[in-house]
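May I ask you for just one protein sequence along with its backbone structure tokens in two labelled lines?

_____
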Amino acid sequence: MEEKDIFLETSGMGFIIYADFAVKKIKRGENFLSEHYWKPEDVAKEVNSGGIVGVCTGAPGKYRLSIREGIPCDELWENSILRRRLSIKVTGGKIYFRDLYELMDWDERCDESQTIKIDDGYYTMLLMGNMPNNGNFGENQVIFLYIYKNDTFCEPRYKGVPDFTQYRKREELSNL
């Protein structure tokens, strides 16, 4: 897996993570966001199936996604008050990271700087971070994203949009 930092500027309330198969159904120019990805139950269906995985950041802004392979060290995990566990199915050897609002006028072309190369398969993604020092989400905020491969798909159980802005109780890595 390719490890790198992705600098993502969003004009919407979050970003999406997906592999090729998940967006084949979207036609160029289609407003997929309002037609198929606006209601919380529609987002949950995509997220829980490992298709188009949306993450609510609560604000437009500039984010640095620090993408790494494996499981984070205990110190990083324990010191991150913002956490989400997500799953994704990968086909095509690549994962894409894009602004949620790009779903309003779809264009499948994506700059390579917003992708990582990865083997096909099932993956768990652990998103971690903290409230920015200035108290505003999206102001050069760092989100650590650790990815590890699974033998089978680990279905998350979201009822709506995974919200990265909600503080979580401390969890043990062994509970993942």
